[in-house]
Amino acid sequence: MFKKTALTALTAALALGLTACGGSDEGSSAASGGGGGGGDDTITLGFAQVGAESGWRTANTASIQEAAKTAGIDLQFSDAQQKQENQISAIRSFIQQRVDVIAFSPVVETGWDAVLLEAKRANIPVILTDRSVDSEDDSLYVTFLGSDFVEEGKKAGEWAVENWGSQPTFIAELQGTTGAAPAIDRQEGFADAIAGTPNLQVVASQTGDFTRSGGREVMEAMLNSHPEINAVYAHNDDMGLGAIEAIEAAGKVPGKDIQIITVDAVKDGMQALADGKINFIVECNPLLGDQLMDLAKKVVAGEEVPSRVVTEETTFTQEQAVQVLPERKY
Ligand code: GZL
After folding, report:
1. What's the pLDDT tens digit per position in 174-187?
2. Ligand 1 probe mutation, 63, 233, 284, most atoms within 8 A of CB
3. What is the pTM of this model?
C-alpha cells in the first residue's frame, strides 16, 4: 500500500489527464529544480527499470521508450534484471551524469532512502512509476504514477467470492516478487475481500517471482502437496500461464478442473482467458510512458504535480476477452 504518512495526496485519475496543481494543495508536490542535464534545453531522464520478467514489463518498457522519443526527451535507460543493487547503481550513475530527472519502478518497497537522499542532495527530482516505496520520508520523491494494487487484489477477491464462494474452494496463491509492492498489496486486497467467505481457503501461497517459469515450478510443487487445489490466484498473467502448463502436465483442465484468476491483462493472458484456460483477469495498465514524460516535463519546469496519479483499470471475463482481444495494444 502507498506508504506515505498522512497521505493527503490529490489522486488524479489518468482519464482526467494530468493537471498541475495550483495553490498550496497539501496533495501536490513542488518539484525541486532540474539537476542540470545536457547543455541545450533537452530534458535528460534517467530511468531504472525493474527488468524484463513479464509481458507486462516488456509493454511498460516499450511505452516509456516510445513516449520519450515522442516527447523529445533524452532517455537514459537501465534494466536491473530484477536486482535492487543494480537499480541503486543505475540511480547513482544518473546522479553522476547530472540528469535532469530520475524515474524508476522500485523492484521492492524498502532499502531506497540512502540513494534517494543522494539524488535529493544533488537537486535531482525523482518520480516513482509502477511500484511504490515504503519510506517515512516523502520528500525523497516528487510523485508516484501507477496502479492501486490493493484495489486490484480486492477486485480479484470479489470475483472469487461471487463465483467460487458457494462451494469449498482450495486456492493456490502465486505471489509476485517477495517484498514488491504489487505482491504485498495484491495479497492484502484479495485476503481482505475473501475474509468473510469460509468456503474460500488459501491452502498454499508462495512466490513465483512474476515469471512464467516461476509460476510453473511453484504450481507443480503445490499440486503435489495439495491435490485438493481447485483454484488459483496468480499475482500476474505470466505466473498464471506457467500454472496452466503445470496443471495440464498433471492431466487436469485449466479453467475447469482448476479455475484461475490473474492480474495484468497482457495479450498472452487475454488469449488464455478467451480460450477458457483462465477464468477472470484484473487489468493492470503498463502504458505509463506518456503520463511519465508529461510529469517529467512539469517537474523539471518546477511546476506542481499531484503527489499520486493512479491509473484507470478494469477487469475482463472470458466473454469480454473474446470481444476486446483484436484491439488490445499489449
Ligand atoms: C505491476 C507490475 C508487476 C506486474 C508484473 O504494476 O509491477 O510487475 O503485475 C510485473 O507482471 O512483473
Report:
1. 999 999 999 999 99
2. 284
3. 0.88
